[in-house]
Write a structure and sequence with these properties.
Strand order of the largest sheet: 1-2-12-9-14-7-6-3
Distance between the termini: 26 Å
Number of strands: 14
Shape: globular
Number of helices: 10
Strand content: 15-25%
Radius of gyration: 19 Å
């Protein structure tokens, strides 16, 4: 691998170009996702006016009085939707200094019988602020465009891996696990913790980040060597999640990243979109060709936080660790048992590496 000093830039419009342009894009996509696990995506087709509108509405949401934001606090949602004030979410046992608002796919809660799998509680409606009704309309429109674009990119990944273009489609069905997070990082002084969000990997398939003009995101391209993912106007920062690493038996790379808090007197706004498989899915290991298989050495996992092929359990495990207050209110029955043990399968192919928190 070359000595990485910045993230590669990929142009999604090249998929509409000549056969040579398409193949060059696929080759660069495979290389970037394997060697770095992060890249910028430009000319992606998501309406820039819609993205700008969502950014403006996000700032208006975070500027609401605290009592209005607390009306839609995540503690009220068994589906882990809603607002969290700074310091509420935990990464590697330390609080993240960011306030945020989470939404998922807008669906009715599943009827649950006693003994039903705990992850089924994750499906349900979002919480929306009455003081900013336009936020729901704009966020859902943006979410739809992001889903279309991200599925197109995922199909390009399949082609880049010499798989059928629809190889990953079965993991999505009619209910992909879409997740949007509005995030504001308040400024911090030098004697305060600089953990905007602690070092972690994302748990889904693909993540997309819309940044403002404030730096802060850093990618661990090599052990203990971090590269800044500086804001690039009009681009999304894209990274590979653990489930895509798992599905390719470690050929693709889910990379550790973190956010450093901005300086006092400023703040940082970002909007994240996460594409994950449907909650009732299970992630297979796709059979890669011989050339690629030789470079696939199994996904990185950790014995205290193992990767699980069952999508719903894998997602719930992360939510319970990150939001202990919500977990205590709505999932107390699961907290009394070791959630990893009964659902871990021998096929998990774990190695003793970086935790994903």
């Amino acid at each position: 691998m070359e000595h990485v000093t910045s993230l590669p830039i990929l142009d999604l419009s090249h998929l509409d170009g000549s056969a040579e342009q398409q193949q060059a894009f696929l080759d660069r996509l495979s290389q970037s996702a394997r060697e770095v696990g992060f890249f910028y995506l430009i000319n992606h087709g998501v309406d820039p006016a819609l993205s700008a509108g969502v950014q403006q509405l996000s700032r208006r949401f975070f500027a609401l009085p605290d009592e209005e934001k607390e009306r839609v606090a995540m503690i009220h949602s068994p589906h882990f939707r809603g607002y969290n004030r700074a310091g509420s979410e935990i990464t590697r046992s330390q609080p993240d200094w960011r306030e945020q608002f989470d939404i998922g796919a807008e669906r009715e809660a599943l009827p649950l019988a006693p003994g039903e799998a705990g992850w089924k509680r994750l499906q349900g409606p979002n919480l929306w602020p009455e003081a900013l009704p336009e936020l729901q309309r704009e966020l859902q429109a943006w979410q739809q465009q992001m889903t279309r674009m991200s599925l197109r990119l995922l199909r390009a990944f399949a082609e880049a891996l010499s798989l059928p273009g629809d190889a990953f489609d079965g993991l999505y069905g009619e209910k992909p696990n879409e997740h949007v997070k509005l995030i504001r990082y308040p400024g911090r002084t030098g004697d305060e913790s600089g953990q905007g969000v602690g070092a972690h990997k994302d748990s889904g398939f693909l993540s997309f980040l819309l940044q403002d003009n404030q730096r802060g995101l850093q990618v661990e391209v090599e052990p203990d060597r971090w590269v800044d993912a500086l804001p690039l106007p009009g681009a999304f920062v894209v990274n590979i999640g653990e489930l895509l690493e798992l599905a390719t038996n470690g050929y693709l790379r889910a990379t550790v990243h973190r956010v450093i808090s901005p300086a006092t007197g400023s703040d940082r706004l970002s909007i994240a979109f996460f594409l994950g498989a449907q909650l009732d899915g299970a992630v297979p290991v796709y059979q890669l060709n011989e050339q690629l298989s030789q470079l696939a050495h199994g996904p990185a996992s950790h014995p205290l936080n193992p990767l699980l092929r069952e999508v719903g359990w894998n997602y719930l495990k992360g939510r319970l660790r990150s939001h202990p207050d919500v977990a205590a209110r709505w999932y107390g029955d699961l907290l009394t048992q070791k959630i990893d043990q009964p659902i871990e399968q021998p096929s998990s192919n774990r190695s003793h590496k970086e935790p994903s928190l």
